[in-house]
Design goal:
Strand content: 25-35%
Number of strands: 27
Structural class: alpha+beta
Radius of gyration: 28 Å
Shape: globular
Mean pLDDT: 79
Number of helices: 9
Helix content: 10-25%
Oligomer: single chain
Low-confidence stretches: 59-68, 285-329
Length: 473
């Protein structure tokens, strides 16, 4: 319960108030800044809260129970108060914010209305809007240990125990290839990928003291390149020096083979994955009990059934089959492709799965449509992580599509064609969908289920490739 000073309460009860909102922001580097929406500076707790910054706040939402409460603050960027470069460099990330209601005629009369931290910050020109997260947000953060196949430690921390001094490199910028892509000198002879998912810290130049995660480290035609997850706050210049630490993909094989640190691996590599959860008996396997074994739902099953018989579709009890295996040389109509894709609508999203009615991801949907209309899959995909595209940096999905589908002009796709999207121009294409018309598509949505949606301008801008199934008419 808030305690309001008696003198302030008396003024509130009088009906005519002289109130202003003040915010005190404490960055993680110790810098303290004050702001107010009043028309002159106010001093609160020894901090000068500056006027004229355009600071204002939205209505705060607070709830009973443990649900997260929050609001937004917005203001203008100025060189003597808030600098865009500081926001871009992350200096305000998770900064502590105290919000006060102050009597501007007598600033000693004030009441603390909220405490929180800065969340997502959006910048538009010389203005910004920042999410103010309440204390209840801490309850939504991950804590404790999770039972996952990947490691729960960070490379070099007290649980990992790897000495980062032995896994650190340094160099200088030799060429600027893009907003977040640089060529560097000083890392020659280092194996490709060693610094992928690592961290780069700037030692000189306009970004001195700031750091950024490395998206991809590779050697292209003898030139070492580092792709960064985000652009630098200040322009990068030739000759800027940096230090960079190795990255870890948190897999047991990497921990064991690269770092020799298997004893400190903080994951459970033998934990069953999705393949085990949705596996089912397959007859005729050598050495299996009574001729059956547990197989993946996307494994070949030509010996399980006769055409027209009831079968297990993608590992589930399905409807009578309308196809036989090895039909890739036959023609298939666009209506049949769309009908098969629509039969998957409502299937929940499940990474790497391809089981109608149980779970699938965007690739699993396309694989299921292939099986339902063309027969056995032409190849089995390897296991892949949710961030396979960011970690690898190669257009693996596009390359696989080119092996088995027919590329077409993006502007000419029709119902039944496969669409491949990339989220940004500098990202790998990683999301698949099946067009149900020139204006709609069916796809598996992360965190939701297979659905049919309109191909809005947002999607069209991100369409990277289009393909037709073989034999489509």
């Amino acid at each position: 319960m808030r305690s309001i000073p008696a003198a302030l309460q008396a003024k509130l009860d009088a009906g005519v108030t002289t109130l202003a909102q003040c915010w005190i922001v404490t960055r993680r580097d110790g810098v303290v800044l004050g702001f107010t929406d009043h028309d002159r500076d106010l001093v609160v707790d020894g901090v000068v809260c500056r006027a004229g910054t355009g600071f204002t706040a939205s209505e705060a939402s607070q709830r009973f129970g443990l649900s997260v409460d929050g609001s937004e603050i917005s203001g203008a960027l100025s060189d003597d108060a808030l600098r865009e470069a500081d926001l871009a460099a992350g200096r305000y990330d998770a900064a502590a914010v105290a919000s006060y209601l102050v009597d501007w005629s007598e600033p000693a009369l004030r009441v603390l209305t909220a405490r929180g931290t800065l969340g997502e910050v959006k910048r538009e020109g010389q203005a910004f809007t920042a999410e103010l997260r309440g204390l209840a947000d801490l309850l939504s953060q991950e804590s404790g240990r999770l039972y996952t196949a990947s490691c729960g430690a960070d490379l070099g921390d007290r649980r990992c125990r790897v000495d980062l001094a032995a896994w650190r490199g340094s160099g200088t910028v030799s060429a600027i290839l893009g907003v977040s892509l640089i060529a560097v000198a000083g890392l020659d002879g280092v194996a490709d990928g060693l610094f992928s998912a690592g961290r780069l810290s700037w030692n000189s130049g306009g970004n001195t003291g700031t750091g950024v995660e490395v998206k991809l480290h590779r050697n292209v035609a003898g030139i070492v390149q580092l792709s960064l997850w985000q652009g630098a706050a200040e322009p990068i210049a030739l000759g800027d020096s940096f230090s960079v630490t190795a990255g870890c993909d948190k897999r047991f094989a990497t921990c064991r083979d690269r770092f020799g640190n298997a004893d400190n691996f903080r994951g459970f590599p033998q934990i069953p994955g999705n393949d085990f959860v949705i596996s089912y008996p397959v007859t005729g396997a050598a050495g299996a009990t009574r001729g059956a074994r547990c197989g993946r739902p996307d494994a070949r099953r030509s010996n399980l059934r006769a055409p027209g018989a009831m079968r297990r579709e993608e590992g589930c009890i399905g409807t009578p089959t309308h196809r036989t295996n090895q039909m890739t040389s036959a023609s298939i109509s666009r209506d049949a492709l769309v009908a098969e894709a629509r039969s998957w609508i409502g299937t929940r999203y499940r990474h790497q799965a391809s089981c109608k009615g149980v779970g699938c991801d965007c690739l699993g949907l396309v694989r299921g449509v292939w099986r339902g209309c063309l027969g056995d899959e032409p190849e089995q995909p390897p296991a892949y992580a949710p961030d396979w595209a960011e970690a690898g940096g190669e257009d693996t999905l596009a390359a696989a599509a080119l092996r088995h589908l027919t590329p077409i002009a993006r502007e000419t796709f029709a119902a039944g064609d496969v669409l491949l999207f990339r989220w940004r121009d500098d990202c790998v294409a990683k999301h698949l969908a099946i067009a149900s018309s020139p204006h709609s598509m069916i796809h598996a949505h992360d965190g939701s289920a297979v659905c049919e949606v309109a191909i809005a301008p947002w999607w069209r801008r991100r369409l990277a490739f289009a393909f037709s199934f073989p034999g489509v008419t």
